User: Fold these one by one.
Assistant:
Number 1:
Amino acid sequence: MASLTITLQDINTYEKETFISALANLFEGPPWIVTNAYPTRPFASLDQLHQVLCSIMYAAPLDQQVALLRAHPDLVGRAALIGSLSPASKGEQAAAGLDQLTGEEIATFQHNNKLYRERFGFPFVICARENKKESILDGFDKRLNHTFEQEVTLALTEVAKICSLRLRDLVVDDSL
C-alpha cells in the first residue's frame, strides 16, 4: 500500500511533524494517538511501536475512544458507494469483497449499519482484511446483542488489528 519504503530507523529519527504525517493514516480521524506516541521514541521494533500506539488508545478517556470509533466509515456505507473512502479503507473493504456486493447485499449492510449505529452511536468496526462478507454479517448479528461497554472494547480491539496491518504495510522493521 505504501508507495515509499519507510524504515523503523526513519520513524525513530523523524522530526515531530514528519513522524505525525507519516503515521497519521494508521488510525481514522485526527492523529492524536500518533501525536502522543512521538515522545516515546525510539522504538526497538514495530511490535513495540504498535503496543505504544494501542496503549495510548486504550488509556484514552471513553469520549475520545468513541470519537475514534465514530471516525471510521460504515462498511459499504455512503463513502464507499460514492468512492470517497481513504485509500486504506477502500483497500480493506475490497479485501473483504465488499466492493463486489449485489444490490440486496448492499441493502443488508446498510440496514445493519443503521441498527448498529442507532444502538451504539458509532459505526460497526471490524478488521475487514481478516474477514469476508459472511463473517462480517455474522459479526453484526452477534455484536448487536452486546452492551455498550462490551462493544467499545471489541471495536477498539478491531482498531488495534487494523492499525497493526496498516503499520506493517507502511513501515519496514529494520531492527532485526
Number 2:
Amino acid sequence: MLESKRLILKPPSLALQPAVLAAIRESKAELEQFLLWVPYALTEKQSIDDIKKAIENFNRFEHELRYFIVEKDTCELIGAIGLLIKDENQGYFELGYWLKTSATGQGFITEAVYRLEKHAFEQLNAKCIEIKAAETNVKSQAVALRCGYQYRATLPSDSQLPSGELNNTIVYTKTCL
C-alpha cells in the first residue's frame, strides 16, 4: 500500500472488485473512448477474472503492478494506476491510469502519478518511466506534462482507438524525480 496526502494506492484485491466494477460502469462512456479493455470489464465475472490476474501479476512482479486509487477522506475507490513492467533489468516502466468520471478535475491522478513514480524510482530502481497517450486524449497528455514528463515522440498511426479509428500515440518520459 502506498499513501499520499489525499490518497491510498491499494494493491489489487477481490475485496475491491465491487467498487472497481461500479467505477468502470459509471465512467464507461469516457473510458471506452481510449481504453480497449473497457467492454471486457463490465460484468461481475470479467471484473473478478481481471482482478485475479492483477493479483497474480502483482505477487509475481510480472506484466503490471496495478494499484487501486482510494480517496482517504471518503474511503471511496476512484480509479486505478499501474506500472507496466517493460524491462525489469533496465528499470523501464510504463505508467497508465484511469479515474471514474465523478473524481476527475480534482488533481487525484496527478497526486497518484507522483506517488507511484516515487515508489518506482526509489524502491523499484526505475531508470525510465513512460506515459503514452492517444493524440486525441488531451487530458492524459496534460497529466504527463503537469507531472514533469518530457515529450519524446509522436508515433504516427500507432494505435487503434476502440472506435476503430487509427490514432497517433504521444510518448512522454521521465528519468528521475
Number 3:
Amino acid sequence: MFIRTENFSQYIRLYPVVSVLIALNIFIYIATGLPFTFSRYWYYLGVGQNGLISSGEWWRLFTPMFLHAGLMHLLFNMFSLFVFGPELERVAGKARFLTIYMLSGIFANIAAFFLADADFTHVGASGAIFGIFGAFGALVYYTKKAFPQLRQIILPIIVISVIMTFLQPNINVIGHIVGLIVGFLIGLSYFHPKRIISWR
C-alpha cells in the first residue's frame, strides 16, 4: 500500500500532483539556498513570521509551505510526501488530494498566526503532510472493518508522528496538530462510507 515500486517515469505519470509538489519544494529549496543575496531575500520574503503577517504581509500564510529550514527538514517532509501522498492521490483524486494538501497547510499557518506569539517564525510543509495523515485517519474511520490493514498501518504512524511533534525541538506544534485535524475533517467530507474504494 505504501511501498513504492514504480520507476521514475511511472511515478510521475501515475501521481502527477505529488510529483509536482515534490519538484516544486526541491526547486525552491535549491533556489533560495544559493549563495546569492537575492536567494536569501526570497527565502526571508516567504518565511511565516507572525509580526510581519500582522503588518499586512498575508502571503506569509501560504508561502511557508514551500520553504524549509535545512536539508534534513526538506528530506523528511518530501520523503513523507513521496511515500504517503500517492495512495491518497489515487483514492481521493487529483483535485481533492490537492485540496486536502493545500487547505491543511494554509489552515495550519493561519492557526500558528492566531495562537502563537508575535515573534513566532516557521517554515515547512509539515502542516500539509499532517493533513495527509489526517485524511487517511478519516478513511480509517469509514473503512475500519473493510480495510483493517490500513488501520494497522496508518494509526501507529499518526500516533508516533503526534508524539514526536511534542518531543522534538523547534517544531511547529500548532501547525502539525491543526494540519492533522483539518485533513481529517476534509477527509470526512470526501470519503463517504458508501463510496467504493479499491486498494491495490
Number 4:
Amino acid sequence: MLWYEPYKKDLPAKQTQLLQLWDELGIPHEEPKQLWGTKLTIIGFDVDPNAMTITMPHQACMDLIE
C-alpha cells in the first residue's frame, strides 16, 4: 500500500503508481472510480474476480422480479 496524496488515502502500490503517472501525463481520473478489493460492486453487481463470479444482491433480484 502507498499513500496517494490527492485522495488522502492508502491505495495498492501499483494503483498508486498508475494514478501518479496519469497525474504526470495530465490524464483525468476520479476517486469514486478507483475501486479495489477482493469483491467489487460494479453497476449494481457484486463481482468476485478470485472466484470468477458475478452475483446480483438479493434486494436487486427482488426489485427486478417486481
